[in-house]
Each structure stands twice: as C-alpha cells, then as structure tokens.
C-alpha cells in the first residue's frame, strides 16, 4: 500500500478521497497542495488533510502516491513540478474527465517515469465544489475508470486500484481513447447540447417569455447547462476529435427525426420515441 | 361561477382539478366521464368525482362547465359527442399541450358554439399518471395558459380563468400560435432532443458499455426521454410546423458550436458556455 499521499487540489474530488481514506484503517499521511491558501486552510481545519503545503519539494518528501485533482489544465504544470522529487516507486494518478490528453502530458513531462503514471476518472460529482463539499461516501458504488497504456506498470495500476477501492469505488480499466469516446457520447455531448439550447434561447428577443414558461422537463434537461464554463471549455477542447464525431452523429440523428416529422410518419416517430422511452426506463431501473 | 363540472378523463390532470375544487367553498357537482371503467371507479372511490358516467347525455344534463383532460387525439371525438347537449351558457375547455390544433377542432366540431370553447394548458405534471396520482396542490403557483381567439366569448374566458384560479394556478392568455411556438422551444424540442439521443445510443454496438458509464448528468438530461411515446408522437405531429422550425434553428446552433470546436476557438466556446451557464443559474434561482 502507501504511507504518504500528496493530493494536488483539495476540493470536492480530492477532499472526498481524503475523507474516505480517513474512515478506514492504515490511513496514510495526507498532504494537501494547492494554489489557494484559503482552500488549503479550510481542508486542514475540516480534517481532510494532515498537512497543507505550498512548497512542492517538502510536500513530496517520501511521498509514495500522488493524486492530481485540479482542473485538468494544471496537470502538465504539476507533473513538471513534481518530477524532480519522484522515486522509482512513486505512483502518480489523476482525476480528470478526459484521458488521452493526460496520458500524453504524462509521457511528455515524465519521460521514462511516465510508466508510473495511471490516468484515472472517478464517475462521481456533486452540485457544490470546494473542500467544504467533500463527502465521505462520494465514491461508494461509483464507477472509477483507470486508463493505463502499454507502458504503464501493473504495480502502479494495482496501487491506484487499491486507493479507489478503499474509497468504495468500482474500478475498471479502459484504453484512454476508448474512455474518451465513451464519455464524448454519454457526458460531453449532452453537456454541449444543453449549453447550445440555453445559449440559443437566451439570445432570442422573446427570451423572457420563453424562460417564464419553461417548466420541470426543461429544468432537468438543462441542469448540466449550469456547469462550470471554464472546465467544460477545457474538456471540449481536450476531447475535440471524439466530440466532433459525436456531434456529427447526433446531427444526423436529428435530421432523420426531422424527416420523419416532415413526412408526418406517425409510426416512425412512435418507434423512435418508444425505443428511447423503454431504454431510458430500463436504464433508470438498472441504476437504482 | 358554475354548478356542474363534467370532466372527461379523470387521471392526474383532471383528477387534480377535481381535488383542488373540493378543497374550496361552492364546490360544483363534479361528474367524471371516461373510457376506462376502472379509472372512473377509482376516481369515484377516491372522492375525486361525485358521479361516474358513461352515458354522455346524462352526464351533460345541466352541465355549465366541461373540462376535456384526455389524450388530445380524443378531443375532437368528445367535442362531437357533447355538442347536442350544449346550451348557450355551457363553457368548454381543455388541458392539452398543443393549442392551435385544438382551436381548429373546436371550430370544426362546434361551429357557432366554438366561441364557448377556451383552449387551456396547465404547465404542471408529475411522473405518475391516473386518478391515484391526482394532487390537491398540483396547480398551486403553476402557470396556466388560456388561448382564446378573436371569436372566443370574454365571459367564457373569465369562467375558465376562475376555474384555474380556484386550483391555485397563475392564469395568462396567449394566441394559440404563440403558445405553440413557445412550447415548441421550451418543451417539445427538448423532449425530441432527449428521445433522439437515447434512441441513437441504444442502437449502437457498444450500447451496454455506454449506459454502464452514463451518470447523473445523463440521468437528468434524459429524464424526459422516458416520457410516454404515444402522447409525444401526438404532440410532435400536432405542433409539427413550429417544431420543425425549432429543429432547424437548433441544428444551426449546433453547427455553429461545432465550428467553434473545430477551430479550437477557446474564447468562443467559453462565451457560449458561460452565457448558457449564467442564464441557467439565474433562471433556476428565479424559479425557486
């Protein structure tokens, strides 16, 4: 296992890992590193971390596990900063929403030590952010995807698997490109669809009237349009190729549906809606 | 006011009107008419209605208000069936999701008596359906839209307004076509977008993997894809013109967004996402 965990970014994601580990036995020493002194101090006073550090050399001393849980744009900067302090047994992982880009960063920044890096993506989140939003059970029963490549050390994958299992997560592994293709379809595309709808309606002359009469269906459909614009800009750009593919496929599906409507094809529309409705209902049952 | 209300369709919508009226004073006699003897009997035993009728002539005797709360395809059939029993003071209204089509039905079926018909659309609903799902407060604080045209009698509009106000609704009036344009944008389009996404994903070879990793954002975004396929087929066909216009506008918005992504226009994507996020957040606050 590991004795000292350094977490870069002690917000909802990193803080919840810390909280979960502190529930178990053999809790490692947990050191938080962050850009915001306020967040670090809050994480310390909430007991999420044992020590708050701004000096990376000091934070990394004897660290055998590093978790990067910052906005993904910071990942290469952090990898570069920690490289001088890595030993051959340090394992590094992250929690970003895209994985091909992160695997490239690791190769570029860590060189031969890139095989000690295991990309990770916990499929869990909450409305709120920051250390105060951290939850002991955020990862319980949630899917955690690790994305080793051909060069990743099996021992490193084992250690990161153990980390997430201690948080209650259900760990599976995928190729980085396969991960990005799956999440382009089930997460990144829906976010872009919701952003596009709300942005378009907001620009209309009768926007006030439209939003006045928007109700509960609209509320659920557009909840993800309230997501953090900077984070989603970075995700969209990081997963650009897969996301453009998904947009093309979806535009074709919309055109096909519009053609059914144009032709007043009642049977065709019914089949499409019924297939979607049945699938969605079955899926919701399987998840509950 | 009115002394005898005949409700066609005693499910969630009609049943909740009945329940709400029964909370107040001057409760009219409420007669339920329906195709399903089971539903009618349940509405009677739950106390939603005072009498259950299958004979329209008997049901309509001395009725001064008729509410049609059935699937909208039945509306013209019901209008034709009740016409012989209407007096010059009977007011007829409905609760369908589309209004231009219903106003045309009223004109076609009722002739000169069409001016006693007031189209209505309560913007309220719930996951469940049937008389057992009826709620006393379903309409409290909810928007109710009435769609009179140039021929509708002002007294009829006043009476239907009073009906919904007694249920706690916030009544406003719109032209039928304006109603359908607004709801094409904020309700019908989102439903079709969600149906199209789920149907498309369900048809893929890796559908099982995709749905395995779909999480809470997907859950909310696609909730409306679990809606009733027959009802939504009818809504889509009834509001075909406005909905096709909305699909065209949305496809253009998606193409513009894809162009920003294709060009890696970080600033353009940020502005689009930020406008959507701010609008959605402000809207949610205004509604809570």
From TrEMBL, chains A, B:
Domain Prephenate/arogenate dehydrogenase: 3-288
UniProt entry keywords in alphabetical sequence: Oxidoreductase
Keyword field contains Oxidoreductase: yes
Record keyword Nucleotide-binding present: no
Domain of life of the source: Bacteria
Name this polypeptide is given: Prephenate dehydrogenase/arogenate dehydrogenase family protein
């Amino acid at each position: 296992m590991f004795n000292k965990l350094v977490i870069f970014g002690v917000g909802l994601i990193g803080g919840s890992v810390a909280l979960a580990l502190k529930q178990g036995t053999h809790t490692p020493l947990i050191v938080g590193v962050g850009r915001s002194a306020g967040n670090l101090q809050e994480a310390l006073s909430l007991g999420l971390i044992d020590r708050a550090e701004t000096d990376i050399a000091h934070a990394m001393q004897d660290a055998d596990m590093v978790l990067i849980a910052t906005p993904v744009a910071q990942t290469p900067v952090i990898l570069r900063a920690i490289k001088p302090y890595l030993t051959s047994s340090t394992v590094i992982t992250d929690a970003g929403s895209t994985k091909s880009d992160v695997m490239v960063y690791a190769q570029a920044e860590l060189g031969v030590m890139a095989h000690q890096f295991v990309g990770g993506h916990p499929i869990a989140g909450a409305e709120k952010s920051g250390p105060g939003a951290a939850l002991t059970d955020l990862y319980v029963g949630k899917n955690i995807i690790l994305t080793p490549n051909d060069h990743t050390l099996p021992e490193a994958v084992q250690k990161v698997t153990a980390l997430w299992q201690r948080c209650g997560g259900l760990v599976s592994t995928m190729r980085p490109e396969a991960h990005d293709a799956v999440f382009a379809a089930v997460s990144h595309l829906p976010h872009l669809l919701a952003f596009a709808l709300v942005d378009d309606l907001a620009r209309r002359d009768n926007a006030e009237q439209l939003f006045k009469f928007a109700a509960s269906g609209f509320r659920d459909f557009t909840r993800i349009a309230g997501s953090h614009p900077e984070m989603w800009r970075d995700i969209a750009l990081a997963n650009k190729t897969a996301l453009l593919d998904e947009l093309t496929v979806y535009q074709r599906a919309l055109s096909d549906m519009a053609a059914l409507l144009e032709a007043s094809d009642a049977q065709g529309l019914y089949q499409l809606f019924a297939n979607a409705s049945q699938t969605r209902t079955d899926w919701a049952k399987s998840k509950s």
